[in-house]
Amino acid sequence: MEEKRIFAWKGRVLLLAMMGMVIMAAGQVFAEPPPKTEDPCIVCHLKATPGLAADWQASLHSQEGIGCSECHGDKHQTSKDSNLARLPDEHVCAECHQEQFDQFAKGKHNLGWSSLNALPITHMEPDILMEGGKGCGGCHNMGIKSEAQKKDQLAKGYRYQNNSCDECHTRHSFSKKEAQDPRACEQCHMGYDHPQWEMWSSSKHGTRYFVKQGGNLPQKAPAPTCQLCHLPNGTHENRTAWGFLGVRLPLPEDKQWAADRVTILKALGVLDPETGKPTPRLEAVKTLDLARLTEEAWKTEREAMVKRCTACHAEQYARRQLEMADEMMKHADRLMAQGIETVAGLYKDGTIKKPDHYAFAYPDFLYFKQTGGSYIDQVLFRMYMKYRMRAYQGLFHVNPDYAYWYGWAAMTKSLGEIKELAQAMRATHKPAK
Ligand code: HEC
Ligand code: HEC
Ligand code: HEC
Ligand code: HEC
Ligand code: HEC
Ligand code: HEC
Ligand code: HEC
Ligand code: HEC
Predict the structure, then answer these.
(1) Residue range 288-317, pLDDT digits in tens
(2) Is residue 341 within 8 Å of residue 263, measured between CB atoms?
(3) Quick one: which of 425, 282, 280 has its CA closest to 348?
């Protein structure tokens, strides 16, 4: 009996092995390398840039017969004339993807390049980090460039970065799945002043996503991604209620908060520090949609976000979470205004001399670290750009450590440092004769 079973088992293995060989042989016939292509671009590029060509071969574009020349034109034909290849901008994608193009054009991403160039700091830093795309320009290559912007770029010797559609679904796979993965946002939404990747990935929302990926939660377990909250239902239009600078109009009813926000708007150079009247920078804020300027504009985005939360949470739970984040901004603004006023006092009594490139004898955040004023200006800028951002963004992204230690606590420490520095500067300052 025992022997019989073993024999039957061995027989089955033999049979399976024989079947396997037949299948493999058949595989040799069917799994031929992909049909020989006649397309000269691909023939040559399979040798010239094999990784790139393989990436394209694996794409839906390749399956749909969208070849290299569809995007790059056919003027370049040899290894020596590759500068004749067209580097396609977003309008080329729009020829076949008008809907996504139109959505993108209406969203905040479309303003990335223009808002970068609107800042005075941008024109003081090495071009490589801007037009060359190796610093600010590496993340701000978001937005359809105007003809003038393209000319400027070429004139400075920068030929690439003509397309922002390849920032989330990268070339040449142009994959939808890649863009649906939160890692597609990581390169840009991380770090110093907008660590959304770090906050989300170490929050319960992100943890769930990774645990689910590891197979330890059921596939149906909810785990919200950046895309779910910010680009829902496949839309390419993005915008948040507060926006990056964390200021908005009209001013809040709370008198202290309103006064603190005015102080911040002065340090952003949007209000004249002496008269309190709007400066030309307010126009730029409007054109570039840097802040919501009406109650309605703000509420529209807020209500849309609440709706997204209620896919999983109770409405009153979600609303309360977001309100707490707003309130946190009020506290953060109180600290921020004290910091700004302390440094502004040094400008006022002449301890810090107005830098030539400043419009006013007042701190100016839009010069980032190139304050031209003094070290205390850099400490103040860091308090705004690094710590205030974390203090409120940490609440919105459900991350306690960012909200407290990296945000609020660091702001408190900065204020201490600013007061200490101000005192020392006054004590050692020699008035000009
Ligand atoms: C005979 C070989 C050959 C053929 C045919 C060919 N390429 Fe190329 N191509 C190259 C090589 C080599 C380079 C890299 C040149 C360099 O970096 O100096 C290149 C570069 C490029 C670039 C980059 C251009 C840039 O500005 O850096 C693009 C885009 C491109 N090819 C697209 C195409 C398309 C589209 C076709 C077909 C219409 C094509 N190639 C046909 C060899 C070829
Ligand atoms: C759906 C449009 C599209 C198709 C199809 C396409 N490309 Fe591109 N390709 C782009 C875009 C967008 C860029 C980036 C342009 C820029 O930086 O300004 C690019 C850049 C390149 C570059 C320069 C960047 C690098 O990594 O060297 C090469 C070379 C290139 N493509 C070759 C090819 C080849 C070969 C094919 C066909 C196998 C192909 N492309 C098919 C859109 C496309
Ligand atoms: C000549 C037409 C054509 C052009 C030009 C074109 N595409 Fe496509 N693209 C298609 C077709 C066809 C499909 C497959 C069907 C669909 O999803 O619409 C596709 C699919 C896609 C997908 C979805 C892939 C997936 O995994 O589901 C993305 C993303 C994409 N294209 C991005 C781009 C970008 C970015 C550009 C410009 C650099 C571009 N396409 C240019 C025709 C085009
Ligand atoms: C190549 C860099 C880059 C990538 C990748 C990127 N973003 Fe952005 N994002 C930006 C820039 C730059 C801005 C600011 C645009 C501006 O100046 O108006 C921005 C703005 C936003 C805003 C609007 C914030 C506001 O002020 O209201 C949201 C929301 C957003 N991105 C979400 C995402 C999501 C989700 C992903 C991934 C699917 C993503 N982004 C991928 C660079 C990027
Ligand atoms: C790591 C990528 C990255 C770098 C580097 C970067 N930015 Fe940004 N920038 C972003 C993202 C992402 C946003 C949107 C963040 C948000 O809304 O929280 C943004 C927002 C902005 C905004 C506000 C846009 C708005 O509408 O609110 C301005 C202005 C700006 N950046 C300018 C700059 C300047 C100037 C530099 C270099 C000195 C720079 N950025 C460097 C990614 C980057
Ligand atoms: C901020 C990241 C981001 C940028 C930039 C971006 N996309 Fe997408 N794209 C996505 C995401 C996320 C999806 C998946 C949407 C979904 O879940 O249905 C997607 C999907 C697509 C699809 C597939 C649509 C479908 O349902 O099959 C196309 C086509 C596409 N994008 C074209 C574009 C074009 C054209 C541009 C430039 C104008 C662009 N994308 C820029 C994030 C981006
Ligand atoms: C559960 C939903 C949710 C997820 C997931 C999420 N966010 Fe947010 N995000 C928010 C909310 C809420 C705000 C604040 C909106 C407002 O201004 O009221 C926000 C704000 C932002 C802003 C603007 C920040 C600012 O400076 O005011 C950006 C940019 C952003 N998120 C990017 C991301 C990225 C990138 C990811 C993924 C790494 C992500 N978010 C994940 C809900 C989410
Ligand atoms: C796709 C489902 C989903 C969406 C959408 C979603 N969440 Fe969550 N959220 C969860 C899950 C799951 C958890 C972890 C389990 C729990 O604590 O309920 C969680 C946890 C939280 C927590 C932490 C609770 C704790 O005890 O620490 C807060 C706060 C929160 N979410 C707020 C929000 C807000 C605000 C939004 C909208 C901007 C939102 N969530 C959108 C699924 C979601």
Answers:
(1) 999 999 999 999 999 999 999 999 999 999
(2) yes
(3) 425
Residues with CB under 6 A from ligand 1: 40-41, 44-45, 48, 68-69, 72, 74, 76-79, 82-83, 85, 87, 159
Give yes or no for a contact between 167 and 371, defined as CB atoms under 8 angstroms apart: no
Q: Domain tally for the chain?
A: 2
Domain extent, residue 140, equals 89-169
- For ligand 4, atom 16: residue with the closest CA: 112
Q: What are residue 236's phi and psi, to 5 degrees? A: -105, 10
Q: Is the CB of 222 under 6 A from ligand 8?
A: yes
> Considering only CA atoms, which residue is closest to atom 37 of ligand 3?
93
Both 412 and 278 in one domain: the answer is yes
Give residue 410 CA to ligand 8 midpoint distance, Å.
26
Ligand 7 centre distance from Cα of residue 301 (Å)? 12
| Residue from 121, 142, 193 whose mutation best tests the ligand 5 pocket (most atoms within 8 A of CB) | 193
Distance CA 386, CA 339 (A): 14
Task: Give tens-digit pLDDT for 146-157.
Answer: 999 999 999 999
Exposed, middle or buried by CB within 10 Å (0-12, 13-18, 19+), for 353? middle
Let me know whether 287 and 145 are in one domain: no
User: Which among 298, 279, 254 is positioned nearest to 362, based on CA atoms?
Assistant: 279
Out of 193, 194, 196, give the residue to mutate to test ligand 7, the one with the largest number of ligand atoms within 8 Å of its CB.
Answer: 196
What 283-291 contacts at long range (C-beta under 8 Å, 24+ apart), as own/partner pairs, is 284/118, 288/111, 288/114, 288/115, 288/118, 289/108, 289/111, 289/239, 289/243, 290/115, 290/243, 290/244, 290/245, 291/242, 291/243, 291/245, 291/247, 291/248, 291/249
Does residue 267 sit in the same domain as residue 411?
yes
Of 169, 185, 212, the domain-final residue: 169
pLDDT digits (tens, 9 = 90+) for 15-47: 444 554 444 444 444 444 555 678 999 999 999
Q: Which of 142, 168, 183, 227 best tests ligand 6's pocket when mutated (most atoms within 8 Å of CB)?
A: 168
Structure-model confidence comparison of residues 91 and 6, the more confident one? 91
Q: Are residues 393 and 274 in the same domain?
A: yes
Which ligand 3 atom is at minimum distance from the Cα of 163?
Answer: 38
Q: Which residue has a Cα nearest atom 18 of ligand 7? A: 241
